[in-house]
Amino acid sequence: MNIFPLVAVGVSTLNSSNDLLDVRYHLILNEDQELLNTLNIDNPGFNSLYSMASGEENNEFFESISNTLSVTSRQKLIFHKIDKDVPISNICDAYLKLYLLSLKVSKPNSINLENIFGSLANVAWTNLGPVDVKDLNLFRSRNGEVFVRSVDKFPCLTDYIIPEGVRIADSSRVRLGAHLSEGTTVMHEGFVNFNAGTLGSAMIEGRISAGVIIGKNSDLGGGCSTMGTLSGGNEVKISVGEDCLLGANSGLGIPLGNRCILEAGLYLTGGSKVEILNSKNEMIETVKASTLSGKDDLLFIRNSLTGAIQCKPNGKSVVLNETLHKND
Amino acid sequence: MNIFPLVAVGVSTLNSSNDLLDVRYHLILNEDQELLNTLNIDNPGFNSLYSMASGEENNEFFESISNTLSVTSRQKLIFHKIDKDVPISNICDAYLKLYLLSLKVSKPNSINLENIFGSLANVAWTNLGPVDVKDLNLFRSRNGEVFVRSVDKFPCLTDYIIPEGVRIADSSRVRLGAHLSEGTTVMHEGFVNFNAGTLGSAMIEGRISAGVIIGKNSDLGGGCSTMGTLSGGNEVKISVGEDCLLGANSGLGIPLGNRCILEAGLYLTGGSKVEILNSKNEMIETVKASTLSGKDDLLFIRNSLTGAIQCKPNGKSVVLNETLHKND
Amino acid sequence: MNIFPLVAVGVSTLNSSNDLLDVRYHLILNEDQELLNTLNIDNPGFNSLYSMASGEENNEFFESISNTLSVTSRQKLIFHKIDKDVPISNICDAYLKLYLLSLKVSKPNSINLENIFGSLANVAWTNLGPVDVKDLNLFRSRNGEVFVRSVDKFPCLTDYIIPEGVRIADSSRVRLGAHLSEGTTVMHEGFVNFNAGTLGSAMIEGRISAGVIIGKNSDLGGGCSTMGTLSGGNEVKISVGEDCLLGANSGLGIPLGNRCILEAGLYLTGGSKVEILNSKNEMIETVKASTLSGKDDLLFIRNSLTGAIQCKPNGKSVVLNETLHKND
Fold first, then answer.
1. Which of A30, B106, B133, C178 is most deeply packed, by most CB within 10 A?
2. ipTM > 0.90?
């Protein structure tokens, strides 16, 4: 689905040199044609960093929006347009694409995020909002103690948007750009990177790396790992199908189909050799794990006597505990 | 020990529709018979959600308690009585039982917590107290930036009670309802769920799941996992005896006796087959791990040449580093 | 390099009994001889806990420094001198040595930290600064809601100093006393204890225990463990050379040389027996892992069919993703 061109309204916090530190978007304007006309977005000059030139501060229209969005003196109102889904070229692009992911307008891996690291500023995220690391001492001397939650290019999701029907036990561990579906619980040991997330109810006590998608009704056990593609050299996008269970402290290096189980403590990489057993526990053949990518109904264990990684048909089905997922 | 009936005084924060978001209890009143008479708790109507009806705000007695507890305009004074240890029926029950666990009046698994998920509200826990997720935008526009630590049904222990002689390196990772004994240190990678905890000095760098109890002088290494009973299908309550060591990144799926060691990186599930060796390293038999539940003086390793999980008599004793545990 | 004697200026927050809770140092004064003369540091009485006696509050010189450092009414200006690198004898020593480590004046394991646990106070670290756990209720009744990030002897690095060119995704997980070099990114699952850190660019998604040093251009995968020497009984200091990769959920119990790889999910302890293979995958001998300490170009895996830990020559080189490390 092509969602571009698209215009959004947001508020950016500035550092002491008036550089943008972030953009907190509030509205997508594609529907409001009257407003789009007012903004004159068809003017080829519109897609600049932000359209609110200093002369416009007296404009009644902008002023009323600024009031609604509670724009403070260290902030600026932003109107930003993305015409086409090309690589990210500035911080307004970057935050808008992260916002679209967390708003669930876009699915992970469906929009172009190239150059996102180069477009984001490294910011001290505090209880008083984003602060440039260089400004922090000055900021503290003016505002008293400041709590620094993070020094990072990406902010936490909950500072920007809290999706409905979701629990996030430690909000430091979910980045803006995470795609969390209703009924998702991210426990304390869970983690969700940007451009990653869940497609339905899910219990997340492990780490969802950038680019990784988890199907509905799946359960990632405490401390489990999913291989990402940003670092580590892995080139295959990892995903988990529906009704799957990754045991505690396990790890996944191939895409899984539906109704698969990975035993607690087992790290399955794409290159692992795996013994294939039939339902009578007879060994049939030995294959590389990557050849099992995307197949349904598999149970992966390490035989506790021979040490071999084995794969057999999965008879059990995973049932999420419903009371844990009614997040209202 | 039957501690009920029991009356407690607390303060609840309300959302914009006057629903209770939490209850921060301050006192257990069982001893103070005069006060109990004043409250008329034998009146069968007492055990309602909260006794302070609107007309009572001018009551001098309630007013003085409100002042002592610094009750603000978005809060309400609560007197709550639990008659018998039956399933939880409302948020006041739920917070009182969590409080009793963290106050160490009740041990984990000793009180009825049925229906706790259904009785708790999903709340945004902020540096300005609990806020209904639906009220957050309004709350921000009134109070400026707000730091959201968590969006969850359970709050952090340290917002309610800080047990004596305890260190908690990252307070986001210990829920109200955790039972932490003096001399317990929960490091950054440690985690303690509600209805779980320690019975004496302990070094916790791994995860204590709901229902799991750790004996005194035991050490849970970094990132280790203990299987819980809330999700994952395990039905046996896991526990760790005294003087035990769970190595870093290990995992435990059976109850352990005293003086047991689980090697770093080894995940022992109840169904794992285990080779039993004698003190001369001779193999005696092969058993399911669950048959070793609760036995003392065992060392579990994975043989690094054969890949087999093995169990032998544990000669070494675990000694906690005392300087790390004097938490004064 | 001997950096002592050395004088530093800082600010300490006090509890309600006027005990020091911490010291936030701002300047090392060794260069400023004029100031040192003013302070009369050669006076044998100087090295007391702090030099600013009550009578000196009217001293113009001290007052101007107090203003610069925004010393509040619950704080005190501190001048502290360490003459020689002997065991820590008080909280001013302790914080100064932690500061020197994080300022990268001292490398981990290069200064005497004996008695540091006994010298530090267990403090509630809040968004309004350090508070004595015993004062917390009083403090809350005066200041309203207070966010407690941690109850610990060590504070978070970012409350004291933010090194240049560093990202720390969850600041709760890096203690003051961590030594983070430019180009280091500590992700959400990363952790860095005091007296530990990196010597160059590094991607840290695992745990750097006290005493552990990571060489430049190395990558610690999500949830990986490095054995520390504080607890657990290990006596060998663990380190990681340059251009190394520790896979996700792996663990390291020996010092590694350069260009080594530890497979995801593999825990290598010093006592593990390891099969040595040549570049043709032929088994040569079996050795204890500790005999491989510090050797370069090794790849450690667990054979997924035999369960044996194996070591072979490492052909691949690890290349950090540069865009993730430009932390400006």
1. C178
2. yes
